[in-house]
Amino acid sequence: MAETTTEETAGRRRRPVRRVLIGLTVLAIVGGAVVYLNKDTLIPPQEGCKVATASGQGQLELAQAANAATISAVALSRGLPERAVTIALATAMQESKLYNLDGGDRDSVGLFQQRPSQGWGTVQQIKDPVYATNKFLDGLVKVNGYARMPLTDAAQEVQRSGFPQAYAKHETNATLLASVLTGREAAALSCVVHDPAKTAAAASLGDDGKPLPGPADRARREFGKLVTTTPAAPAAKDPRTVLALSPQSGPTQRQTGWALAQWAVSQAADLGIGQVAFDGKVWRVDRPTEGWQAAGGEAAGAEKVLVTLGTKAGD
């Protein structure tokens, strides 16, 4: 038998190690390629809402979008102009970043950081976004010529903030958001909701084939707070379509419809809304990357805003 040198023995030991390292490197490269090629399917789209128009775009968290849409809806239900919506949105952006805060400076709470000690209402009242918005607008409409004033001056007349110029920096974003939430910009708000449990629960049907009363009643109640038109019995084949809102007739009918439709999209996570259809377009919670698409079937020519709870099985 030939004698083996120490150097040859060491070389043999290194070769298996080298082969293992090469194998691991190849696996790492292949594995990396698989992750890279499939990253769009492995990583879900980010939860939240997107605003996109020809003049600008932006991102909002779900809670921010829902609160912003409520502010706009309250102003519209009072017949106030888009400028009032812009001022209110800019104010809430500065005071709370569009979150319904539990606290703040001293005893301030809510979207507009209103203070119970200063006569704005109780904590419970101010924490209601509809109430808080109405209280802000009550003050705004008392400001003579507010629609023609610099935004920060109009907001300051209501808020009496220690930083009177702070509202001005939000005017561009508030103007963009107001153009969408008032319906002037159509099909411009789309949301991604990661928790389908709410929409699935909302789609639960009773023995009669109709939605169980909880989610449906809550959806109608929330619309009733904000919408001046009367919800009609939906003429829809899908029993989960619980609202069919007819915008008031006239030159602003389409804009009002889009304001209602985009408000509904912003509330999808909270109310369990799975589909909104209007003006030949449809948004669906189970197709988050598609946004508003051309509608087919009964929704294609709908003049009403059709709001459907839960995801539509079989589609």
Protein architecture, described:
Residues 6-10, 17-41 and 228-234 have low confidence and may be disordered. 45% of the residues lie in helices and 12% in strands. With 315 residues, it is of the alpha+beta class. Helix 3 (62-77) packs across helix 6 (129-140) and helix 4 packs across helix 7 (151-159). The longest helix is centred in the first third of the chain and has 32 residues, at 6-37.
Work out the helicity level: 40-55%
Beta content comes to 5-15%
Provide the gyration radius in Å: 27 Å
Walk across the major sheet and give the strand order: 4-8-5-6-7
Mean pLDDT figure: 77
Q: Based on DSSP secondary structure assignment, what is the total number of beta strands?
A: 8
List the helices and strands and how they pair.
Elements: H1 6-37, H2 39-42, E1 48-53, E2 56-60, H3 62-77, H4 82-96, H5 123-126, H6 129-140, H7 151-159, H8 171-181, E3 189-192, H9 196-202, H10 213-226, E4 241-245, H11 253-266, H12 268-271, E5 273-278, E6 281-284, E7 293-294, E8 305-309
Antiparallel strand pairs: 1-2, 1-3, 4-8, 5-6, 5-8, 6-7
Summary of the model, kept short:
With about 325 residues, the chain is of the alpha+beta class.
